[in-house]
Amino acid sequence: MSSMDMGGMDMGNMPMPASASSTPAAAGASPAAKDGDMAGMKHGQMPDPATAAKALSTGTMDMGSMDMGGMQQGAMPGMDHADHAKGARPSASSSMSGMSGNASGDSMSGMAMGAMQGGNAPPDARSPDYSDGVGYGDRSGMDMVPPKVGRLLLDNLEAVHGRNANGQAWELQAWYGGDTDKLWLRSEGERSAGRLEDGSAEVLWNHLMATYWSTQLGVRRDIGVDPGRTWAAFGVEGLAPYFFDVEATAYVGQSGRTAARFRATYDVLFTQRLILTPEFELNAYGKADPARRLGAGVSDASLGLRLRYEIRREFAPYVGVNWVRRFGATAGYAQRDHQPVFDPQFVAGVRIWF
């Protein structure tokens, strides 16, 4: 058998004796069954293990005379079983007719491969979409529609102690909508001596244009003791690199008036609750407005530092300092009104959102 390639033979279909005593050879084989000669075996019989081992070790096993009729039909594709039906002993050439070459050849190229490849998939094969035949069913109502959300943030609600006067100030933002579009409200102002000195309110439509960035379009209304002004507003708002919150807005008003506002903040976390927030704001106008004590060009700038402690995320008291500087004609109006051109302020307040 060392010279014969038996690859492809299903050895699981060859019945093996449970013990030597139970084999036909042990019970009394034909006298013709000698060591190394298996021609005398009866149809379907196999030698006892000792005889088979000796025949294999000496190389005298005669595969041509070995009766293969005991194998299950179909175990060796291409085998001619006609001789078995007639009771004759098949030769090696007739039994192995499906194979190319002689009994001593190593090539299996002539074997028909149809039984090994192609055809239908086995019953337990996995389905291509891994559904295993389970339908998806009705998925109505499962669309991921982003919900509408709202928020009100009182960023600064504080008492102010300046060079010439004490007062109160506020900055707030509120919005409502989805991920793409929101209705946005923004307001800030100052109150002193029991009256509203200066303030503004903006209503904007916020539209997402890129990750972390959105455009804003709406109107602004100036309020206070001076004459009110109405502006069309458009700008951008978002998170710049290194986590700077940025707002840049341009305004167009009546009588050819124009204005611009830039604001940036940044949170420095000393701990998860103790946070320092620097804030910078710059305002400019295209033309002078003496009624509101504003000159053309850059009118004022402010820089603030506020240190807050978040007792809860929604509630954080803070203390800080704010420096306000007026420029150009706006500084001249302040001097004539006996107001400081440079005004350092101490502030204390609370930040609330819900």
From TrEMBL:
<feature type="compositionally biased region" description="Low complexity">
    <location>
        <begin position="1"/>
        <end position="33"/>
    </location>
</feature>
<feature type="region of interest" description="Disordered">
    <location>
        <begin position="1"/>
        <end position="51"/>
    </location>
</feature>
<feature type="compositionally biased region" description="Low complexity">
    <location>
        <begin position="91"/>
        <end position="121"/>
    </location>
</feature>
<feature type="region of interest" description="Disordered">
    <location>
        <begin position="78"/>
        <end position="129"/>
    </location>
</feature>
<dbReference type="Pfam" id="PF05275">
    <property type="entry name" value="CopB"/>
</dbReference>
<dbReference type="InterPro" id="IPR007939">
    <property type="entry name" value="Cu-R_B_prcur"/>
</dbReference>
<protein>
    <submittedName>
        <fullName>Copper resistance protein B</fullName>
    </submittedName>
</protein>
